[in-house]
Amino acid sequence: MTDLLIRNATLPDGRTGIDVLVAHGRIVNVARNINAAAGLTIDAEAQLLAPPFVDAHFHMDSTLTYGTPRVNQSGTLLEGIALWGELKPQLTQESIVARALAYCDWAVTKGLLAIRSHVDVGDPSLRAVEALLHVRECVKPYLDLQLVAFPQDGLLRSPGALDNLKRALAMGVDVVGGIPHCERTSADGAESVKLLCELAAKEARLVDMHCDETDDPQSRHVETLAFHAQRLGLQQRVTGSHLTSMHSMDNDYVAKLIPLMADAGVNAIANPLINITLQGRRDTYPKRRGMTRVPELMAAGIDVAFGHDCVMDPWYALGSGDMLEVAAMGLHVAQMTSQAGMRACFEAVTVNAAKILQLDGYGIAAGNRADFVLLQAGDPIDAIRRRATRLKVFRAGKVIAETPPSIAKLHVPGRPESVAL
Ligand code: FE2
Q1: Among the three residues 357, 380, 399, which one is the final residue of a domain in this structure?
Q2: CATH number at residue 89
Q3: Crossing angle of helices 221-231 and 251-264, rounded to 10°
Q4: What distance in angstroms lies between residue 402's CA and the mean position of ligand 1's atoms?
Q5: For residue 87, is it within any domain?
Q6: Torsion sign across C-alpha atoms 120, 123, 125, 128
Q7: Cis peptide before 69 (omega within 30 of 0)
Q8: For residue 64, which phi and psi values (nearest 5 degrees)?
Q9: DSSP conformation class of 207
Q10: What pLDDT is stored for residue 2 in this prediction?
Q11: Largest Cα–Cα separation, the chain
C-alpha cells in the first residue's frame, strides 16, 4: 500500500481530474483515475494542487524587527540601511534564530517551502551567519533555506567585508552575494562584480547580487554582471536582484542590455512589494514605479522570479510570508493583466524561483519529492485573486500545515447562508 493518494486535483498547467500517488515521500504517479490504495486518500474536489511557493529573495536576519530601535521615517532604502546599521550591534544570535524560526512557521502555513535568504556578512563576528546556518539545519525537514553571503555595506567600501564573505562561504553559506551600486564609485562597483564572479567561478557557487537598486538610470552594474557571467561560463548560475534602475533607463540602452543578459543566461529577481514602496521617493509627480522591466525580461527568455525581500523590518512594515500577495503586487505594478501575464506571475513565485535556486526534484511529477499545496482556488489566477487559503501543505507526502476553508456566514434574507472567500 502507498502512503498518500490525492484524488481529483487541478494542476497549475490546467490539467483537471488528476490523481497524485505518493510512496516513501516521493511522487510515483500523476495521472487520471489511478487504481491504487493508500494509507491516506484526500479528495481535492477539483481544487488547485500546486508545487510549493518559493521565495527567491529574502532577508531572514532582519525579519520581524520592525520598530526596533525605531521606524524608518523617510521610507527610503538608505534610511533602512542606516537603521539596520543601528540595530545590528544589538542583535543576539538567540534573537535572530527565534525570529527566523517564527517567520518559517508563517512561511510553512502559507505553503512557502523554499526560501533564498541573504545574510549580512558585514559584522566580523558573523553572528547572523551562525544563527541562520543553525536555522537552516532546524528547518531542513520542512523547508529548504538557501543562504547568500551579502556584504550589505559594500564589498570594497567596508573594511574586511571580502574576508568576512569568504569565511561565511567556508562556514557553509551557499551563494555569493554583492551590492555593487553601494560601493564608493562605479569603478569600485564594477570591480566588486568582477571579484565576486571570479570567486564564485573558482568555488563553483551560484551568484545572486543586489544590483542597481536605485532610481538612477546610470546605475548599470547588471551589464558588468552579464559580461562576467558570460566570460566565466556562469550561464544560468548568476542572478541580478532588484535591478530597479532598469525601470528608469533609456529605452535604447535597455534594447541592448536585455539581449546581453539573455545571452549571458543571467536570471532576474524583482521584489514588487518592497520596490514599489522604497523607490521613487525623490519624485514629485509623476512618481516612478520601482520595479524592473518584468514582462520585457520574460519575453527575452530570461528566468524572472518575484521575491518577498522583507517582512516587518527596517525596510518594510508589512508582509506575512504570502507569496500570492507578492505575485498580486508584481502583476499590478507590471500591468501583467492578460491571462498569460497573470499565469506568469504565479510562475514567478513557484517554478521560475525554483529554477533560480536550482532546487532538486521540484514540481508535481513522478520521481520528485512529494511537496505540494492544496489551495482553495480553481486555478493559478483564481489563487492570486483570492490570496487563496492553503488548505493543506504537504512535505515529502506528509501534511505539515492545514488551514480551514475560508467561508463567511451571510445573514441576508433571500441569499445563501454562506459564501466561500
Ligand atoms: Fe534585498
Answers
A1: 357
A2: 3.20.20.140
A3: 30
A4: 30
A5: yes
A6: negative
A7: yes
A8: 65, 30
A9: E
A10: 82
A11: 71
The range of the structural domain enclosing residue 238 comes to 53-357
Global pTM reads 0.97
Q: Are residues 278 and 226 in the same domain?
A: yes
Query: Residue 241 forms beta bridges with which residues?
Result: 210, 269
Query: How far apart (Å, rounded) are the C-alpha atoms in residues 98 and 89?
Result: 17
Q: Are residues 232 and 337 in the same domain?
A: yes
pLDDT-based confidence at 99, cuts 50/70/90? very high
Say how many C-beta atoms besides its own lie within 10 A of residue 174's C-beta: 19
What is the Cα–Cα distance from 297 to 312, expressed in whole angstroms? Answer: 29
Q: Is residue 420 part of a domain?
A: no
The dihedral through the CA atoms of 349, 355, 356, 359 has a sign that is: positive
Ligand 1 center to 122 CA (angstroms): 15
> The C-alpha cell of 414 is what?
433571500
Examine residue 415 and state whether it is found in any structural domain, yes or no.
no
DSSP letters of 294-348? HHHHHHTT--EEE--B-SSBTTBS---S-HHHHHHHHHHHTT--SHHHHHHHHHH
Neighbours of 255 (CB within 10 A): 11
Determine which one of 213, 223, 325, 347 is catalytic. Answer: 213
Query: In terms of domains, do 23 and 141 share one?
Result: no
Q: What percent of the chain has pLDDT over 70?
A: 100
Ligand 1 centre from 345 Cα, in Å? 19
Cβ(121)–Cβ(175) below 8 Å: no
Active site residue 213: yes
Q: What is the CATH number of the domain that holds 15?
A: 2.30.40.10
